[in-house]
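User: Round two. Same drill as before: sequence, then structure, for each protein.

Assistant: Same drill it is. First protein:
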Amino acid sequence: MHAAMIHAGGAAKLQAAGGVRSLSFDASSPLQLQSGESLAPLTVAFETYGALNHERTNAVLVCHALGGDQFVASPNPVTGRPAWWPRIVGPGRPIDTNRFFVICANVLGGSMGSTGPGTIAQDGQPYGLRLPPITISDTVRAQSMLVEALGIQTLFLVVGPGMGGMQALNWASAYPKRVFACATVAAAPKQSAQNIAFAELGRQAIMADPDWRNGAYLTHGVRPVRGSAVARTAAQIAGLSASEVRARFDNARTKERFGFTTGDNEAAGMRQNSAGYIDRFDANSYLYLSRAMDGFDLGADFGGQLTNAFKGADTRHGVFAFSGDWRYPVEESREIARALIAAGAEASFVEIKSQGGHDAYLGDEPAFEAALTGFIDAAAAARGLALQGGAG
């Protein structure tokens, strides 16, 4: 990322600290929230890969899932965590950084540099629960401010899994003239009752932790570690396939000794694996972002008709789903595809046979990678972009 690319004038300032790059917007550029409140100043942390071509037509925005961050194709310099989507984003990958200029922003309300509940407010204290409620559309508007500040008028592609897929759909609906192609991966047009219930259990676990301190734990120098571990474990379980859940817990069921942590205690093992997540992910961010997902219902903004969210738009859509995903079942992706076709949009739907559960998009899924590559290559040809590496 080069500072020379910033085109926001005096309203935005590029910052870098500890390997985290961010763009800060001052009070003259407040973010108008769906709640009617505004947020200023605003900071959006982001990472970029590849180079923008001369025509500025090869930009790709990757939107991350609930537990993700902006480091989609490189290690997180703060936590050391590896890139979260290296099979998809990188040189020679489906989203080829030799061909495309890739942007990935930490979501509004996140905990890796963007304005969130852990951000220090103007009174010198963390926002905590004083941060206004946020929605998926608020996150998309913040990303739009970032993209504009980078001097990019249109995006070749917006893509994301899970919560990132919700953002991608919102982008295509809210800014149809600015999004050439949209790829939705293992996502849904609205949050299901099952997912809302899982998220509420996680939120209740965090808030029941004595160290949560009514959301003011940072000012007390503590963190709700136990509650966060339970929330993380619930999310991990939801990411597995049904068969994997049974396989993981069957052995523990016969040997469980409650109160002890044994090698056969699958839940204890998952909690231990959550330690890195808890270190990098603010508990209040989980509350805010999971609530934003719970409130996502794209069709509700269009008279309850999802089709109306895409009418008259020229954006090309690819909808990708995994057969073993019970968090965002295939039928929910089919609903997106049906609405797009009814709206007259150019859309393709691909169901990948997989036992990887919701998290299959993170793993070795050659059929998914091939299908995504095909969609991107076809869109690139339609856009007039080079099919080989190197910025045009």
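Second protein:
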Amino acid sequence: MKKNRVTYLIVIVLAVVALVLVLPNHKSTLKKGLGDFAIADTASVTKIFMADMRNNHVLLTKKSPGNWVLNDTLKARSEGLDMLLRTMMNLAVKAPVPRASYNNVIKRLATNSVKVEIYQKKYRIDLFNTIRLFPHEKRTKVYYVGSATPDNMGTFMYMEGSDTPFVVYEPGFRGFVSARFSARPNDWRDHTIFKKKPSEIKSLKIEFTQQPKESYLINMHGLNKVEVISLETGEKIRDFDARRLVDLVNGYRDIRYEAVLDAIDPAKADSIIHSTPLHIITLTDTAGNVNRVKTFRRRNMEGDYDMEGNLVAYDLNRLYALINNGKELVLIQYFVFDPITRPLSYLINKEEK
């Protein structure tokens, strides 16, 4: 008799647990079908796929916390992913689209929107977020992100399987969020060219192709033993400004390009690549990896003039760079590259005390 009571008690407890788990799910399913665009647990997001009507598409895959890959090959831009995930977590519905605007909004979503698919790590058994068993990846949301509302304070969005488009916004943000859901691969690429701490650098060679006497090699045998060698003479520089050298090497902690020149005319790109470089930078890290970058002057397209009022031949703000082992041409800024391409004369001419 006592054994039967225990059995009945277990059955009742399990039934109550089942009701607690099932009933909220029915309610939340209804809300999700209508307009639950937000992701409460963005840490569980494993993949994000986005595609637009112009045949652009991106697949963002999380390899580890904070480490995302673009289209299975390229490192993704962490700042952009952070903003996208934060936006996904905060999305809120302002109102359903009014009947008077319904047809017009649906047409616009059908011709000008970004399809978003979100995948998350889920558990086949998940009791109160405590007992979690049998993890698997599941597509949890599919929705379409359209254009901004007429007042630019919201975005038209539509959940797949729903029959109602909504005006969606991010609380606390004045504007529209559609620009954050980009399906263009270049918007998600990491722009890093160099990202090395001084302790990770084995050698750094900077060649000035048009000024050979300014070219040099820095060999780093630990942080306390550094040698500077003139590439023109092969001689070690005995008396260099250590502070300036430290500033230069420190500059390689985070160097980025401005934009990928993927739309440039191939003939023009070929002409640039086969012209004489301004600099050739070769960084070898302590693991033996070699990163070589060539920079090239850019023709003056902005109408810049010198101090005497003469039109200068080359852009004073930007130049080209060939990166990724000569595979890609990008646009860079003198403001970023000048501090890491100091000539040899700068390192050996000490400041007056």
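The first helix runs from residue 2 to 35.

User: Perfect.
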